[in-house]
Write a structure and sequence with these properties.
mainly alpha, 67 residues, 3 helices
């Protein structure tokens, strides 16, 4: 499983090298780059909060099973 995941990330990163910066320049000139960064930040924070909640639930379940 680790092999396939590593291969997938490698292939995804290789495709990003071939893209030009025109779109980024256009977004930056329109001021929309801040919207893109904001959306990415909100998604990332949502994932982090979800992981923290899941970790707390797992710890609670592990404590209950240990008793």
């Amino acid at each position: 499983m680790k092999y396939w995941t590593s291969l997938l990330f490698l292939l995804v990163s290789l495709t990003s090298f071939g893209q030009d910066g025109q779109r980024a320049d256009l977004l930056r000139s329109d001021g929309k780059i801040y919207v893109v960064v904001g959306v990415i930040l909100i998604i990332f924070l949502g994932i982090v909060v979800n992981m923290i909640r899941l970790e707390r639930k797992l710890n609670r379940i592990e404590k209950n099973n240990g008793k």
